[in-house]
Amino acid sequence: MKKRRLFISILLIIVGIVMTFYSFIVNSINDRHNSTILNSYDKKVEEMEQSDIDKLIAKAQSYNESLVKTDVVITDPFDPDNSHRFLLKEYESMLNVGNDLLCYVEIPCINVYLPVYHGTSDEVLKKGAGHIEGTSIPIGGTSTHSVIAAHSGLSTARMFSDLEKVTYGDVFYIHYLGKTISYKVDKITVVEPDDTSQLYIEKGKDYSTLLTCTPYGINDHRLCVRGVRTEIKSTNNETVRKKQSRWLLEYKKALGIGITLMVIIIMFLTIKRILDKRKDRKADK
Known about the structure:
Layout: H1 2-47, H2 50-68, H3 89-92, E1 101-107, E2 112-118, H4 122-127, E3 129-131, E4 144-149, E5 171-176, E6 179-191, E7 206-214, E8 221-230, H5 246-284
Parallel strand pairs: 2-3, 4-7
Antiparallel strand pairs: 1-2, 1-5, 3-4, 5-6, 6-8, 7-8
């Protein structure tokens, strides 16, 4: 009976340790998986003929030009009931080199390096960032406005959880087909979920917006961080001042609580075991 109780106690402690470090472990696995995907993407692009790359870019430019002449309706990417879940084949082929990737986004100041997929379905947003259909394909150009969305506040993946740390003047990059374009943050707004007025194309402008849910842990509004096209000065991340991670801070708090609870449980079980041994000795006498 005592051995059984000891086994259960040890098992509970092990489970507690696994649960305490679960978020950090899974997030690390996701980061490594995304890194593998992006390396694979870059390798495929390197193996492509330049003529094929040019065709994909020309097709994306034509698509973007058509958006300017079309009355596009942009909807909340995090609403599961919206019709943008059903993507057109023409759209799905944009910049697609065979792995459903559209491009990838880099935000140096918050250490974000995420693959961007077509659309914003639940499946897409679980594995990375999604491009909102109806906005420009993220290749830049006059009269374009691409919008990239990702989750925040997930316990198992950082995604855009630290987007609220991005401030005016910070720069983010979009990488596609071996090319890199940069945007400097010039506007930050918080809106209601159904307010997409900040996401439309402005004639003559070249914008890109990063979008996520806010505030952290509540997620009943949308944070829009818009960047205006700028010249690339340097992609050396070592020169960028890093922001403190909100996601990591919340994880450390949870880790502290978890470790404290484990220590209390271990102390309780240890004291109980000592008292039980004393009781057994008295009984033997």
